[in-house]
Amino acid sequence: MDGLYQETNRKLDQLTYDLRHLNTGFQNYKHRKIMKEEEEKEREELLNRRFTPNGAHKRILDIASTLGLSNTVIRLIDKRATQDKWIVFGGMIVTCIIMFLVVKYLT
């Protein structure tokens, strides 16, 4: 009888160990699956998000008004930003023309 009892306890302990091992593996699998789904969702959100300068511009104006800057100062800042944009575009065009001329006359 003692041998049968010991054998039963050994098998029960082995089954308990196997169950814990399988549960741990299943929990790891679920965790990896959840993490993968979250990563895919975050990736989709980032791909669908639009990074627009206008949105940043509006936020800057909101912050400026919160800080108490007057409307005149905000308009001057806005005008300067527009002027800077045109200066950058002009500089890019001039640079492209110079590069084209250099390549054309040196080759």
From TrEMBL:
Primary localization: membrane
Q: Where in the cell does this protein reside?
A: Membrane
Tell me a Gene Ontology molecular-function term this record carries: SNAP receptor activity
Keywords attached to this entry:
Membrane, Protein transport, Receptor, Transmembrane, Transmembrane helix, Transport
| A GO biological process held by the record | protein transport
The UniProt transmembrane annotation reads: 86-106
What cellular component terms from Gene Ontology apply here?
A: endoplasmic reticulum membrane; ER to Golgi transport vesicle membrane; Golgi apparatus; late endosome membrane; SNARE complex
Q: How does it sit in the membrane?
A: Single-pass type IV membrane protein
**Would you tell me the protein name for this molecule?**
Golgi SNAP receptor complex member 2
Task: Give the organism, scientific name.
Answer: Acropora cervicornis (Staghorn coral)
